[in-house]
Specification:
The complex is a heterodimer of chains A (187) and B (370).
Chain A (H helix, E strand, L loop, with lengths): L6 H25 L5 H28 L11 H31 L4 E4 L2 E3 L7 H36 L3 H6 L16
Antiparallel strand pairs in A: 1-2
Helix pairs in contact in A: 1-2, 2-3, 3-4
Chain B lengths: L2 H6 L7 H25 L10 H12 L11 E11 L17 E10 L14 E8 L5 E7 L9 H10 L11 H10 L1 H11 L12 E2 L4 E4 L5 E10 L8 H4 L6 H12 L2 E9 L19 E13 L20 E3 L3 H18 L19
Antiparallel strand pairs in B: 1-2, 1-9, 2-3, 3-4, 5-7, 6-7, 6-10, 7-8, 8-9
Helix pairs in contact in B: 3-9, 4-5
Bound molecules: protoporphyrin IX containing FE (2 copies).
């Protein structure tokens, strides 16, 4: 049976999973809605910045507490894909909010979080820069959505089909060891 | 080993049937999640009026003028200051309206036209947009029109109205039947049009009153909320547009007059805040509030100069009516969120387009000054 991720890592993971799914839904909903645009974009900014902060905390935590190793029988290409998708997820959890913040800076909007709390600009004012970053925000957001779906499918594959303890290492549910003959190889 | 075997990893002792079932379940969960995004994004309801379609509507009627606003396309930057009287300080906690506060202001006067090179005309709606930067990064932006009420109540009605004004390719003029059909479907717009047509058209930008039209809420330090509408009322007595002005040859005469005025002396407007009472319509900009509502003179706007639109000035600002400081909050007027969304879409499009100079020059190339 795989060891579990430490509890703080699991809590951060599931909190951020909910936030990121919510942000993707809020993002696509707000740009298509006249009626709810303001309410949604007012939630989008602070939640996005919250994701940025949590991602940085999580990255720092992960450096001190490495993830449990993947099962030894996992084919190399899946190992590489898993690793690459995790790197991409971290890069997007940090990069996407930064692009959001930067694009609003370039467009000279005040980056209001709530009440009188406003973030300072991190990019010089420039419409050209804004237009480029605004396009990038969309591309990265859709990229994140695609990787999240892949991540979801892979997690379910581990949990329902391979039943190798990888999903359990994040859910924290102890699965009974299944009777696969090579179970002894797994960690 | 086949790819499927590699993926399922021998499936931990599951029967082939169980593996297939579980694979299907995983596919279904993933597809359902993807559809969730599609649903949230409105891709499953293509008929809905979105910010994109709204701005497409402007482009359909006016054509695309790269780099220019999709509405209020013809404009001129202005600058000056705001001097708070403090009279509204009990109604809102925004520091800008505290006693004795003076803040620099930038803004834009414009005509509510979709083409930057339309000739100035007396009957065209004039606008004044302002941007005030407060301490700690907060801002107040407002866009006001020289109207007593707005013509439409909802963004959907606005869209219908723009398209009804689309010139018929055969005649080059809007089809009167379409406009008639629009008004037949919108009795609130018929009532608003009567008020709008009865307004006094003044001689120019300098003596026009610019109104927020949409309602907002002032939030006081103790959290008390007051529904408000505001207007910039010129200190100078307005002069009705004379017959002589109607035939002016200068296609930019309204802008050129303002430039000439501001070169001579600053112009002043009072920020008049009208306080709504319970029951006053806040979600319907076609309806005026009763004329006996209390007003507060919150301060004075002093415009001191103009500049042609160019890099880094008012050209590159989105006067989003929902960029508000703490102490001023939106009302339930559906136009407000729709404006914010549509202006963002217009701004995003024009920000990425190549720019060309505005036909409104500073100093003017034609007209009074030459
Ligand atoms: C993980 C964090 C984030 C996610 C997942 C996310 C996702 C999205 C998505 C899916 C869209 C719609 C894209 C489109 O269809 O064009 C969007 C738009 C937007 N996002 Fe984000 N975003 C994040 C962070 C941020 C942050 C931190 C800010 C600002 C501080 C921000 C500001 C915006 C704005 C202003 C828009 C577009 C509004 C408009 O065009 O009118 N986002 N975002
Ligand atoms: C749903 C209704 C409305 C739509 C779709 C709409 C659309 C637009 C658009 C697309 C722009 C150009 C924005 C930019 O690119 O920066 C604009 C500018 C403007 N609109 Fe509206 N508008 C609406 C209602 C109103 C109302 C009720 C007012 C009332 C005062 C108003 C006042 C202005 C002003 C003053 C500007 C010019 C701002 C500037 O000089 O940059 N609009 N409008």
């Amino acid at each position: 049976m795989s060891p579990l991720f430490p509890l703080p890592a699991r809590l951060l993971h599931w909190l951020m999973a909910v936030l990121i799914l919510a942000m993707l839904v809020i993002g696509v909903a707000m740009v298509g809605s006249l009626a709810d645009y303001h309410t949604l974009v007012s939630a989008h900014r602070p939640l996005g910045i919250l994701i940025l902060c949590l991602a940085l905390i999580r990255l720092a935590y992960r450096r001190r507490h490495p993830a449990p190793r993947l099962p030894a029988d996992l084919p190399a290409w899946q190992r590489v894909t898993a690793h690459a998708s995790h790197v991409a997820l971290y890069a997007l959890m940090i990069g996407l909010p930064l692009v959001g913040w930067a694009m609003l800076s370039a467009a000279r909007y005040p980056i209001v979080l709530f009440g009188p709390l406003v973030l300072p600009p991190i990019m010089p004012a420039s419409p050209v820069l804004y237009a480029a970053l605004r396009g990038l925000h969309t591309v990265l957001a859709y990229g994140l959505a695609a990787i999240v779906l892949l991540h979801l499918a892979a997690a379910l594959m581990h949990g329902l089909v391979r039943r190798d303890g990888v999903l359990a290492s994040m859910t924290g549910w102890r699965q009974p060891a299944h009777p696969a003959p090579d179970a002894a190889l797994r960690r | 080993m086949s790819l499927l075997d590699q993926i399922t990893g021998g499936a931990g002792g599951l029967s082939p049937r169980a593996v297939i079932l579980r694979l299907c379940a995983i596919g279904a969960v993933t597809a359902a999640s993807a559809s969730g995004f599609a649903y949230a994004g409105g891709w499953l309801s293509p008929g809905r009026l979105t910010p994109e379609r709204m701005i497409d509507g402007f482009q359909e009627v006016n054509g695309v003028h790269p780099g220019f606003r999709r509405n209020h396309a013809k404009g001129l930057c202005v600058e000056g200051r705001f001097e708070s009287s403090g009279a509204a300080a009990g109604l809102t906690r925004v520091r800008m309206l505290a006693p004795g506060v003076v803040l620099p202001i930038t803004g834009r006067v414009a005509l509510a036209v979709g083409t930057p090179d339309a000739a100035d005309a007396a009957g065209t709606v004039r606008s004044l947009a302002l941007r005030v930067r407060l301490a700690d990064g907060e801002e107040w932006r407002t866009g006001m029109n020289s109207l007593p009420v707005f013509l439409v109540r909802t963004p959907e009605a606005f869209y219908e109205q723009i398209l009804a004004g689309k010139p018929d390719p055969a005649t080059g003029k809007p089809d009167p039947a379409r406009m008639k059909a629009f008004f037949a479907a919108h009795p609130e717009s018929v009532r608003a049009a009567a008020l709008i047509n009865a307004r006094t058209i003044t001689s120019g930008f300098a003596d026009s009153t610019y109104a927020s039209l949409n309602a907002y809420r002032f939030v006081a330090a103790d959290g008390t909320e007051t529904p408000v509408r505001w207007a910039m009322v010129p200190e100078r007595a307005p002069v009705a547009q004379g017959a002589a002005d109607a035939g002016r040859a200068d296609p930019n005469y309204l802008f050129d007059d303002l430039e000439a005025e501001l070169r001579r002396a600053p112009l002043r407007w009072r920020l008049v805040v009208t306080l709504g009472r319970p029951g006053d319509p806040t979600a319907d900009a076609t309806l005026p509030w009763p004329s006996d509502r209390k007003t507060v003179d919150a301060g004075t706007l002093v415009l001191t100069g103009t500049a042609a639109e160019g890099p880094g000035n008012c050209r590159d600002v989105n006067f989003d009516p929902l960029v508000l400081p703490d102490g001023i909050a939106p009302s339930d007027d559906p136009l407000l969120s729709a404006r914010s969304a549509a202006y963002s879409q217009s701004f995003t499009r024009r920000a990425g387009e190549p720019k060309s100079p505005s036909p409104v020059k500073d100093p003017p190339v034609q007209g009074a000054a030459l």
